[in-house]
Structures are given as C-alpha cells and as structure tokens.
Automatic annotation (TrEMBL):
Highest taxon in the source lineage: Bacteria
Name of the protein: DUF6545 domain-containing protein
Keywords per UniProt: Membrane, Transmembrane, Transmembrane helix
InterPro entries, A to Z: DUF6545
Residues covered by the DUF6545 domain: 261-361
Pfam families, sorted: DUF6545
Origin species: Streptomyces macrosporus
Residue ranges of the TM segments: 12-27, 48-71, 83-102, 114-135, 159-182, 194-221, 233-255
Length: 405
C-alpha cells in the first residue's frame, strides 16, 4: 500500500530556511537600513544566493506526498508530479553547481563552463518530460514511484536519468568544494570556510541520497525488495542536505554581515570616552541619536557629531602644544600611536578650556591632525587619563597656551 502517513515532511526544512533568512535579513540586521540590503541589489553573487534559497523552498514543498497528490489531482494526470519533482531537483542541483563555479572562479572565468552546464542540464530536463510522456504509468504512486516503476520501460530510464544527473552535479560540486578547501591554491578562512564545510557535508549527503535510491532500484531489477531505502532512508538524508546546503550558501554572506556589525559596534563603543568628554564640556554639536538606532547609523551619527565638534574647536587648537605634549609623553614611557593619542587629547582639552577665554589662534593646529586620530584620542582618554593630566599640566604651564583647569 502506498501510504504516506509516516513520510518525512520537507516543509519543515523549508520553513527553517525561510525563517532563518527572514529573521536574519529583516529583524536582526534591520535589513532596510543595513549595508547587506545595498549589497543585495549590487552584488550579483549575493542575489544568486538569495535566489537559490528561494528556489529551495518549492523543492522542499513539492517533494512531500500531500503536494504530489495535489499536483496529480489538479492536472488530472496520474504521476505528473514525478517529472515535476525530478525537474525541480535537477534545476536546484544545477543552480548549486553553477553558483559554486561562479563563486570559486569568478563570473568571467566561469562563463564557458556555466554555458556548458546549462546546455547539458536543459537537455536533461527536456529528456525527463519526453520519457514521462512515453512511459505507461497509470497507477498513482505517491511515495514509491521510483521503485514501483523501476522495471517499466521509459519510466525506468526517466528515474535513472534524474538520479544520475543529480549525482553527477553533486560529485562535480563536491569536487570543486574539495579543491577550494584543500588544494592550497585558494586562501579560505573564516565564514567562507565554515560555509564550504557545510556545503561539503551537504553534498556527501546528496550522494548518499542518490546511492540509497539507486540501491533500491537495482534491488527491484534483481527481484529483491529494499524499497525502504528509497521511501524512508533517502528522504531523511535529503531533508538534512537541503538545510545544510542552504545554510552553507548563506553563512559566508550573513557571517560577513555579522563581522561588519561587530566592528561597527566596537568602533561605536571605542568612541564613547571622546563622545562623553565633549558632551560633559558642552561642546558636542548636534542631537544625540536614539538608543534604538541601527548600529551603522548610530556609529555614523556619533562620528559626525564628534568631527563637527572638533571642527568648531579648530581655531583654538594649539600646534605648539601638540609638539611639546608629544615630547613630554616620551618622558612618561609612552611612544608610538599612544603618544599621538595623548598629545591630541591634551590639545583637545586645552581647546575646550580656551574656547570661551581666548581668541582664535593665528597658528592653530590643522584640525585634520585630530580628525585622523579620533580612536587614538578616545583610547588615550580611556587608558591614560592620569598621564594626559600630567602632560597637560606640565605643557600648558611651560608654554602658557592656556590656563589650567
């Protein structure tokens, strides 16, 4: 009996992929205000990944027995769902192969191979439908079409063709991934390596799926019954491969976005000491952003306010004080970028004091000196407050540039 009460529901993997994609793009990354949105419209490779993920949804949905029954009943053709599902699987495996080719070689280098693959697999799809038209398959088989018609002329060729096409695409794709990961010709690290590892596991499972199906079919040819390999074991393996494959293609892009967000958040927090100093001195220009602002917008807003504030202080920046403050930091055992940050912080603090008591300087320090060292100033305010104060008192007293606070 061709029952499907205990079938593996591929809609759950599809729902998982869609939920993860939607949550990541629309909620956690604030998609409409995020650089990932911009890359989606400008990066052909990222668009291809999204297209592949979208394609995985109908693949997962239409391979389920309820949808197979619906297709057969809607069209009025027994088993029409079989070539339809085989076509979806063939197109999906081809799309995966093409994406890996372009991903690895680049669009231009991969163009000849892409054209060849498309031509071959388009012919396979046409052949699938021609074989189905020629085959005599009057009895609807929801779960075991592969094994039930394993000895039927033309249906037999139809089944073997789709499995071989799927297996070949899987073997070529897994080979490309293996070369990418282990040949030493490519530098693969981070999120990309993680995505490729998931894809490698996915294609091992794909080949296992094909092997299980073919084993069950060959068993039918030899008069044995191993249908459970095709109806129970293979669908479980296939569902797992769909999830891993989708995540493997998505991980490098989402991972890079997470990395960018982490860097933006770190930069935002790194500027906090400088932001707080200007705020407490009443010298911060503009309005504060809301706490709910996207991290990229919040960073841009904070950076812009700080820069505008320093530009406003530009007439009071003491060039001589910067030189003497940097020399003084050496006496405190500080050198390199830390010395630049401390010297810049001393000049900034002196300018904050001088803005209301002194007239603009004729020999003012170019504000670009401080604008190019915002993070160094913020680090100095956080890590070396006592050194800044000592250097400031000594240098301001010796140069007489401004009164000490």
């Amino acid at each position: 009996m061709d029952s499907y009460e205990d079938y593996v529901d591929y809609r759950w993997p599809a729902a998982l992929v869609v939920a993860a994609l939607a949550t990541r793009l629309l909620t956690r990354t604030r998609f409409w205000t995020n650089p990932l949105r911009t890359r989606l419209w400008t990066d052909p490779l990222l668009r291809a990944v999204m297209g592949l993920l979208i394609l995985s949804v109908p693949v997962c949905v239409f391979v389920t027995p309820p949808m197979i029954v619906w297709v057969n009943q809607t069209t009025g053709v027994p088993n029409l769902a079989a070539p339809w599902v085989y076509t979806l699987l063939t197109i999906f495996s081809t799309a995966c192969l093409l994406l890996v080719l372009v991903w690895q070689l680049g669009a231009e280098r991969a163009r000849p191979a892409v054209r060849w693959v498309i031509a071959v697999y388009a012919a396979v799809v046409v052949a699938l439908w021609v074989l189905f038209v020629l085959a005599d398959t009057p009895v609807e088989r929801v779960r075991d079409f592969d094994t039930y018609y394993a000895n039927t002329p033309y249906a037999r060729e139809l089944i073997v063709l789709y499995l071989l096409a799927h297996a070949v695409a899987g073997m070529v794709t897994s080979g490309l991934i293996g070369i990418w990961l282990f040949s030493g010709r490519y530098e693969v690290r981070g999120w990309l390596r993680g995505g490729l590892v998931l894809l490698g596991i996915c294609y091992v499972l794909n080949l296992a799926f094909d092997a299980l199906k073919l084993t069950a079919i060959v068993a039918r040819w030899t008069g044995h019954d191993l249908d459970w390999l095709s109806t129970k074991a293979a669908p479980t393996v296939g569902a797992s491969s769909v999830v891993l494959g989708s995540l493997g293609f998505l991980l490098p892009h989402v991972g890079e976005d997470l990395k960018d967000r982490w860097k933006a958040r770190a930069a935002y927090r790194r500027l906090e000491p400088l932001h707080r100093t200007l705020t407490e001195a009443g010298a911060l220009v503009g309005f504060s952003s809301t706490r709910r602002a996207d991290v990229y917008l919040a960073l841009a807003h904070r950076d812009t306010r700080i820069r505008d504030s320093i530009l406003k202080l530009a007439p009071h920046l003491d060039a001589a004080l910067w030189d003497s403050a940097r020399e003084e930091t050496f006496r405190h055992g500080v050198a390199g970028e830390d010395a630049d940050g401390i010297a810049s912080a001393v000049v900034l603090l002196a300018a904050l004091d001088a803005r209301s008591t002194s007239s603009p300087r004729d020999d003012a320090l170019a504000p670009q000196k401080l604008l190019g060292a915002l993070h160094l100033i913020a680090d100095a305010l956080r890590r070396h407050p006592s050194t800044i104060e000592k250097v400031r008192r000594r240098c301001v007293t010796s140069t007489g540039s401004t009164s000490t606070s």
